[in-house]
Amino acid sequence: MSLKLPAVDVPPQPWTGRFDGDGPGHRRWWQAVTSSGPAQPTPGTRPAALLGFASDEGVRRNKGRTGAAAAPAALRKALGPLAFHLDRAVTDAGDVVVSGEDLEAGQERLGQVLAALLDAGHQTVVLGGGHETAYASYLGVSTSAAVQGGQRLGVLNLDAHFDLRDEPVASSGTPFLQMARAEADAGREFRYTVVGISEPNNTQVLFDTAEKLGVRYLLDEDCEADRVRDFVTAFLAEIDVLYLTIDLDVLPAAVAPGVSAPAAYGVPLPVISAVCRQVARSGKLLHLDVAELNPAFDIDGRTARTGARLVDTLLR
Predict the structure, then answer these.
(1) Helix, strand, or coil here: 305?
(2) 251 DSSP assignment
(3) Residue 258: strand, helix, or coil
(4) I want to staple 130 with a disulfide (CB 3.0 to 4.6 A). Which of 95, 141, 172, 316 is the partner?
């Protein structure tokens, strides 16, 4: 029996990739992903569901380089040819599209679809979109049964920026301050930590806001592998469920040139990949998203391929 979901704006499209054969030993992502509706969970398995958020209105409001609305398609294209080594079903639920300047309505729609998927027992992945994707993801996560049931939610952001701007209009720079206020309104503690902060790219006001909210962070220059592992371990010990958000501008520009704000320094890819493996093994990962891919500025699909590789790692 298929799961009934709130309507998305664009239904799932066909996946493509290299063909080596029909047998299970030849499978690649494009052959494994289904679009017939989210799979029903079975004992011992947690199927995954992909959901695109085609939005760059938040980036436009934040005066960044627009183009992230094309990211969900680019990430699927990069995932398609990868060899499929997962032991779970993966379904593509389609895209929620931000129409014109109506970011808030798009975020609400994505949150509704995401909450339905989570409550049906799926491991969810949102393919963004600018980092306004994060607040859309939060709307789904925070209204899911897991969080409403009293479990302690933690938000781990791999990012060069705090995204705690206090602005009159929401943007890609405001999602975590929006979350902080929403958590306070709900009477819950805001548990937010960041790996990869670029000190020259965050004003003193942002550092002061982070301190006021009790945000813990590691600067990009301090992201040595063992230190990051211990930092993430301590955070995981304090929460029950985790929402992981990856802003691809956390990576060096040579690895991720196709973002709104390429990093002059960045955190090495092996360190970011190790964090992904760590949180996947923790058993606490409820939801993840990948944000800020801008295909218009990518080089040889480099950033999209990196984002796809991280999604593959997290779902194994």
Answers:
(1) helix
(2) S
(3) coil
(4) 172
